[in-house]
Specification:
Blueprint (H helix, E strand, L loop, with lengths): L9 H6 L1 H4 L2 H15 L4 E2 L7 H5 L7 E5 L24 H14 L10 H4 L3 E5 L4 E2 L11 H15 L4 E5 L1 H6 L9 E5 L16 H11 L17
Parallel strand pairs: 2-3, 2-5, 5-6
Antiparallel strand pairs: 1-4
């Protein structure tokens, strides 16, 4: 996988050129091609593998939210962690994210799960693994994506200032353990999954804390309320 063949937002394409030229990315590309040749359905579609980066240029990153894998159901994944396409049922973890936003900021839960409104403001909604086989959770773990997204996080850590990292769950907290807390705000809480949200995600106040930090550092806060209709984004 080389950067010349990837339709990617310019700042990220330049920042990650060495990654795209690396042997592990060539191996990852070969794996994905072979999977498709076997007739396997891969989510999201190829043009959306890097959607999180396309919507949030490196210099614009204000908040990083880390997920693990794309949704593996038909029509769900579109390249942003926790987000689903318009018209798709809101997943349980996102329902809980909305509940915490309502508790924290008084924002009524959105009736859709399409989060591009956040991404366009500087919220990098990054999964650790960027592809998955239909109905096969975690099927593309250990194929190279984790190394690539580690590089993305390192670029944000090294080249951006005053970024909020919302690390929900042990996996995200391990993945971003190297973030420089003298320059960035690291917020930690349990994962919003129904299995763990009651252990400290609810009541974490991350959304208001993020905006307070951004404003204190002279950066515009995130407009967290989502448009009433996903089509308005």
């Amino acid at each position: 996988m080389n950067e010349q063949s990837v339709a990617l937002e310019e700042s990220w394409r330049e920042a990650l050129a060495c990654e795209f030229a690396s042997p592990y990315m060539q191996q990852l590309k070969a794996f994905l091609v072979a999977e498709k040749q076997e007739g396997k359905r891969i989510f999201p579609k190829g043009s959306e593998y890097f959607r999180a980066l396309d919507l949030t240029p490196l210099a614009d990153v204000k908040v990083v939210i880390l997920g693990q894998d794309p949704y593996h159901g038909l029509g769900q994944a579109h390249g942003l962690c926790f987000s689903v396409r318009p018209g798709i049922r809101i997943p349980p973890s996102l329902v809980n994210i909305y509940k915490e936003m309502q508790s924290d900021l008084g924002i009524p839960p959105a009736r859709h799960g399409f989060l591009e409104h956040w991404a366009r403001q500087g919220v990098l909604l990054l999964n650790s693994v960027l592809t998955v086989e239909e109905a096969q959770a975690a099927s593309h773990q250990g194929k190279g994506w984790e190394r690539f997204t580690d590089a993305v996080i390192r670029k944000v850590n090294d080249e951006c200032d005053a970024v909020v990292f919302m690390l929900w769950g042990a996996y995200a907290q391990r993945k971003a353990a190297f973030v420089d807390t003298s320059r960035h705000l690291v917020l930690k809480a349990p994962h919003p999954s129904p299995l763990s949200a009651h252990n400290g995600f609810f009541g974490c106040g991350h959304f208001s804390k993020a905006n307070a930090f951004l404003q204190a550092r002279g950066r515009a806060p995130i407009d967290w309320p989502l448009p009433a209709a996903a089509d308005d984004i």
